[in-house]
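Recap from last week: sequence in, structure out.
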Amino acid sequence: MTLALDRVSYAARGRLLVRELTLEIVPGKVTVLAGPNGAGKSTALKLMCGDLAPASGEVRLNGRPLAAWSPSDRALQRAVLTQDPRLDFPFTAAEVVAMGRSAHHGRSTRDRDAAIVREALLRTGTGALANRDYTTLSGGERQRVHLARVLAQIAEPAEEGWDRFLLLDEPTSSLDITHQGVVMAIGRTLAAEGVGVFAILHDLNLAAAYADELVLMREGEIVAAGHPDEILTARTVEAVYETRVHVQRHRELGRVVVLPLPL
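Predicted structure tokens:
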């Protein structure tokens, strides 16, 4: 099963933000969506998670139209980490992570939920923050706590045949270079466990290092899709971003590296 956009379009205030977009998030793979500001990336994610309804086309989750699933059943199958999650109440970090288990009310036990919360905190390197007041955390710490929350949400399949999906909107934007790698490594581990991972990234080098498939958007349309090694050419990147770059293959990693050139 997949989470799929099928020829989806969306307009706001008379402007077409996404045009005939077809995109599949496949269990067991990391798919990265990249492109310049205003390309329609966040709109695509909002359509994918059901925050926006398409003007045309269809969004499907595990073989059924997204609109046919109840909000609670959607939450059992896909978790979403938005760009700037808002929370201004003095919960502890552990209590914030435990919010991810609310969709499992009546399906799980208190002990099971507590174990999953501890594992999510450990996985994201936020265990030491468990009893800290969330409002006192740095931006990067808050981002990792919310990542732990969505990991707790889809920690296990809720029903047989329900594949799980993790949708991340710029999950590394507030993080230092170490924790950027931690977050992307978590995505790779989840993919190995059978989760379909989708991330919007601005950093093409992170995409090249961790993505199974890279999708490049411009002006609401997909202009290239495939393995990063195949589509991250100087010609393609310069056409999408309208800037000069140098692309080379990293000798040790075996992946391409994109270097912006002075304007």
